[in-house]
Amino acid sequence: MSPLLDVRGLVTRFYSDGATIHAVNGVSFALNAGESMAIVGESGSGKSVAVMSLMGLIRFPPGRVEGGQAIFEGRDLLGLPAEEMRRIRGKRIAMIFQDPMTSLNPVLPVGLQMTEAIQPHLGLDRGAARERAIEMLALVGLPRPQERIDDFPFQFSGGQRQRVMIAMALSCNPSLLIADEPTTALDVTIQAQIVELIQGLQHKLGMSVIWISHNLALVAGVVDKVAVMYGGHVVEQAPVDELYERPRHPYTVGLLNAIPKLEGRDQRRLVSIEGMPPDLRRKPDACPFAPRCTHAVDKCREALPPLTEVGPGRTTRCWRADELADVFAVAESP
Length: 334
Description:
It contains 13 helices and 12 strands. A hairpin with a 2-residue loop joins β1 and β2.
């Protein structure tokens, strides 16, 4: 069976002040219907740019998608005309953006913002679209949706605004939901509620979900598989349990060692990753993690390692992955 989404060799660059920013460099991954995956990595690794490229949300200038394919339901998203992409975006593929306060229009009621998407995608009149919006607000657990639909974004709490964004994203029954840091700036209690809400709706509606996060602990019990990004590259992909139990890339090991462990005897001091993120203005012609890697050798600094299969459903981008496999297996599942 063909995957719902098959991304192959995605390349996105930005041009600013005479410099070329190599933001996404040959990213590939696949997602099956009903499956969930996480794309993780520190800020600036290319996670959000990659998914925004798939959604046709990269504007030129300064950015441009310059290579690759993104086969979704049999069509290449990167080759579709703008009008056709608009029919897919919001209906077949929906996205929850990082900050609901800046994503929602502050001068329009949330109901109007929802019906603006519902009417053209579902072909409903204004009354039916409003009823659909109320139904979705109730589905995400917003109290008194019949009354709150006419409120403005500033009248909602942070968690409620995020629920509005989720309701808006799901209102047209998408087959793929992209959740870009959906719990950013929320306290841990609300974070747990939002994660549980999205999981429950995924199972209820049968959709696929891509989680974008810098928090490996957050996605541990949420997804089926994980893609780790660094410097615009996917450096490791694996089923979630295998990634936590036996990481195969030194950057993944660094991320796992930075997860706080507050229970049991393993209450050790957090291990930081020394050094600085890569300068994306430099052409990616060597391992991007080599300057920060304690296992790097000359070859790592001279040539970019390919994404190599190291097991069923597992790939890694490391020249020394095989010889250091036992050294890398240092992290425990959170």
